Structures are given as C-alpha cells and as structure tokens.
Amino acid sequence: xxxxxxxxxxxxxxxxxxxxxxxxxxxxxxxxxxxxxxxxxxxxxxxxxxxxxxxxxxxxxxxxxxxxxxxxxxxxxxxxxxxxxxxxxxxxxxxxxxxxxxxxxxxxxxxxxxxxxxxxxxxxxxxxxxxxxxxxxxxxxxxxxxxxxxxxxxxxxxxxxxxxxxxxxxxxxxxxxxxxxxxxxxxxxxxxxxxxxxxxxxxxxxxxxxxxxxxxxxxxxxxxxxxxxxxxxxxxxxxxxxxxx
Length: 245
Ligand code: FPP
Known about the structure:
The protein has helices at residues 3-6, 22-28, 33-53, 73-96, 112-125, 141-157, 168-172, 220-231; strands at 14-18, 58-65, 100-104, 132-139, 185-188, 207-210. By secondary structure, the protein is of the alpha/beta class. The chain has a six-stranded parallel β-sheet, with helices on both faces. The structure holds farnesyl diphosphate. Farnesyl diphosphate is lined by residues 19-24, 37, 40-41, 44, 63, 68, 79, 82-83, 86, 215.
C-alpha cells in the first residue's frame, strides 16, 4: 500500500463517482449497450468493496440521472432491471459488511416496486456504521435545488422564515444530502470532463479527477490512483496555502 493510503488524513471522506462509458465499452467490443451496463454493475461491486476497504466514509454514485429518461425505453427498462437485481442480490452482503444505503433523487416518478425496494434497503441498513453508499437514482441537481427553493418559499409563506434569514446553510439543509458532508473527490470515468447535473451545490470545493478508462473497467487500482492524485492536490477552499499564512 502506498504512503497516501497509509495516511487516513489523505483519504477522502467522501468520494462521488460519475460512472460513464458503459455504452462505449460495449460498442468497442461490438456488444449491445446493455452488456456495458451489466459489466458496469460488476465494476460498481468492485468500487464499493475497494472504497470501503480503503476507509472511505461516503461513496456517492450517479446511477440514473433525471435526463436518462430520454434514452430508448428498452435501455431504461434494463437499467431499472439492473437496479432491482443489484438490490435483491447485493443488499444482504452490503448489510453484512455494515454498509448503510441511501438513495437520493426524485421518487414520485418511479414504479411502486422500485420505491418499496429503495425504502427496504434504507430501513434495513439504517443503523449500519460502516461506509454509506449513496445511490443517486432519478437524480438531477437542478431539480433538487428547485425543490429546495420551493420548500424554503413555503416556509416563508407560512411565516416560519424571513427572506433575509435565508443563507447558504438554509439551502444546504433543504437538499437531499443535508446530513452528508460534501464530496472531497469526484471521479468521472471515460474521459469526459463535465458534471452533467450531478451534485452542483455539493461540489463547490470538490477536487475533480477524470480518468480515461470506461466504467466497466473500473477497479481498485484506478480508485487508488485517483485518491493519490487527490492527495497531492492543494485544497485551499478560497483561502491561502497553509505555508503562506
Ligand atoms: C453511463 O454510461 C452509465 C449510466 C447511464 C448508468 C450507470 C449504471 C450502471 C453502472 C449500472 C447500474 C447500476 C445500478 C445500481 C442501477 P453511458 O451509457 O452513458 O455510456 P456512453 O456514454 O459510453 O454511452
């Protein structure tokens, strides 16, 4: 293990991942796109195990975005099928590894059985003390912020809050990650360098690491490399370097 990984101070507390490139991985092998998503689930299992072993406290994954509804219906059905299977096959093992599961995103548009599965996983694992796996499913950051603004406006309308009392903490406490620290490190696979409506508020000071490998090839070595890149960054949060003070 490298020095970075022996030093818990250098390990990010919260890693967020945009799992990109399943389709490209499949087309490079002349396989249907869904084969890439299936391999993507294997990569997800490797990522969860590695992050938990390395002492990461929160791992947030972008598994279905609000914009993914524009994909062909068959692909959407397949992604929902993978979620169902992931939950039914993996939840017991995640639970026995003391992993807590949280699902963020808009639930009202989801089928009832999916909502029930989500609630089951969250309840079953709610007292676990190991890593928290946050699954962003039917998630869009702009939608999340719009709904936070709506809740705040309702509180103002009821007279519970004055407009001039609204500050950054008010907003942070009305979004779905209100009890989760902001990501320290965001990894996006497949060489793309954008946020795609993922955790826009939460990533204000997050370090971004973009890797060229497609998501189905993701493994512990790639995760360790990303953590090492992160550990060598100089995080200043808008201030000055410690030695310049
Ligand atoms: C991006 O690849 C990936 C997704 C839109 C879905 C991510 C889903 C998984 C890894 C598997 C499902 C896991 C759960 C828990 C549901 P892409 O299709 O955009 O790839 P491309 O950009 O190469 O076309």
